[in-house]
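A common beginner's mistake is to predict each chain separately and then try to dock the pieces by hand. The better habit, illustrated here, is to supply every component at once so that their relative placement is modeled jointly.
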Amino acid sequence: GENVEQHPSTLSVQEGDSAVIKCTYSDSASNYFPWYKQELGKGPQLIIDIRSNVGEKKDQRIAVTLNKTAKHFSLHITETQPEDSAVYFCAASIIQGAQKLVFGQGTRLTINP
Amino acid sequence: GAVVSQHPSWVICKSGTSVKIECRSLDFQATTMFWYRQFPKQSLMLMATSNEGSKATYEQGVEKDKFLINHASLTLSTLTVTSAHPEDSSFYICSAQTSPGIQYFGAGTRLSVL
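With all components supplied together, the output reads:
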């Protein structure tokens, strides 16, 4: 089955700097890769996703890149702000049908003012 | 994005009682919903896949008689923790899948069993 590894487990950056979180997956059949942001005591919020037919997707300060050959994908947050502090999870699945998401271990991102 | 409502957000119960958690998709129909459990500082652990009108599919190691799932309509799935014990205390989160296969999550339910 699919296995998703996420690094780093914790990340601390200065406000205004960029943050990068990386994930690798094992199943070459996976074709959908969402990223979720989870604030303390809340459910995960979908912030961006990418499908395997594109290599990069951007939404304002957030971008995701995908390398299908190497089976890894990354989340990039630019111009970080204190409200970006949260736990971020990557996930992988096959989008057709009721397919399960396999989550990474999570990254606790702290933005220092 | 799509809205998923989960209720209650927090529940305290006595050991041996049952607790029901509701998950509703508010602005879309979801033939498939998922139930997760999350321990502090850990990732989400899938418990079961809930399909409207059929029996839920449980992940290995999850007791189906302990965690009863009902998905009676396209907008509502319920998780009942039966005969709850302190070790069942956790954060339970549901998600609902839209037609392209994207999952949107509820806000979670914190269960504390005394």
